[in-house]
Amino acid sequence: MKRVLITGAAGSIGRCLRQHLQGVYDELRLADIAPQAPAGPGETVVQTDIRDMAALEKAMEGIECVVHLAGIPVEGPWETVRDLNIDGCYNAYEAARRQGVKRFIFASSNHAVGFHKRENLLDDSVVPRPDTRYGVSKVFGEALGRLYADKHGLSVACLRIGTFRDHDAPLESRQLLSWVSHRDMTQLVQRCIDHPEYHYIVAYGVSNNRRSRWNNDGVAFLGYQPQDDSEVFAEAILAKGIVEDPIAARFHGGFFCPLEFTGNVDRID
Predict the structure, then answer these.
(1) CATH no. for residue 97?
(2) Catalytic residue selected from 25, 90, 93, 134
(3) Phi/psi at 257 (nearest 5 deg)?
(4) Which of 92, 234, 111 is nearest to 161 (CA)?
């Protein structure tokens, strides 16, 4: 994989990947609807709206691997989630197919499985349990990836990303479980780009946190070896004495779970 496209390159993870992957590949093409810094050596910057299929196809010309980060990164109204994370995600997969892209790395989220109880250790085989409309959109993207892998032969990696922050540190107790550092996020994406062969995989974007509840044994062949552990921040975070919302504390999805919640937590097995 020598020519790599990143959609959503102006976002937090996109900027991180741009910084750390510059010069690693023959071409790093950076697409976003938002303004970006001018292209550096080995880079191409393109302004692209993922709702525009023709623009996406043009952005993917000659590309071998797509890292699809574009979309709304939080919960939002259905219309926004649908337009960007459902229709936009479909456009990205389909444009990749039409342009003969070999590999597609999809930025999924832990919120695709957010309503699993936190006491349960999660691996790549657990059933989807989205905690929001946003989480539903990530389940959709994973399912679409499976379709394009099986039906069209696209090599697909879906990354259930944990807590990634610009300041590169966790802020509250749940993030001691879910935090992924900048260098670990970069390493995981690069492993997914560079590995010679896989069909369809699901991996958790999480650092080597002592408190992590996510298991990547199913994708050990990638060679992903996270270097950072949120435990170095634990004493300072726990000293704040902030009590997590009781519904949030029950589930992997944390504070996404009580948003608009009108159900009965005792009926969620």
Answers:
(1) 3.40.50.720
(2) 134
(3) -65, -45
(4) 111
What is the domain range of residue 33?
A: 3-267
Which value, to the nearest 10 degrees, does the dihedral of the CA atoms of residues 12, 18, 21, 26 take? 150
DSSP code, position 201: E
- C-beta of residue 51 within 8 angstroms of C-beta of residue 84: yes
Sequential DSSP letters for 205-232: E----TT--B--GGGGGG-------GGG
- Is 198 an active-site residue? no
- Distance (Å, rounded) from C-alpha 108 to C-alpha 186? 15
Give the three-state DSSP class for 267: helix
User: What total number of domains does the chain contain?
Assistant: 1
Q: What is the DSSP letter of 179?
A: B
Residue linked to tokens 């952005």: 59
| DSSP state at residue 17 | H
Buried b (16+ CB within 10 A) or exposed e, 108-144: bbbbbbbbbebeeebebebebbbbbbbbbbbbbbbeb
Structure confidence at residue 1 (pLDDT): 84
Query: Whole-angstrom Cα distance, residue 157 to residue 162?
Result: 15
**Could you list the pLDDT tens digit for every one of the 269 residues in the chain?**
899 999 999 999 999 999 999 999 999 999 999 999 999 999 999 999 999 999 999 999 999 999 999 999 999 999 999 999 999 999 999 999 999 999 999 999 999 999 999 999 999 999 999 999 999 999 999 999 999 999 999 999 999 999 999 999 999 999 999 999 999 999 999 999 999 999 999 999 999 999 999 999 999 999 999 999 999 999 999 999 999 999 999 999 999 999 999 999 999 99
The reported pLDDT for the residue numbered 246 is 96
| Nearest partner of 214 among 139, 269, 162, judged by Cα | 162
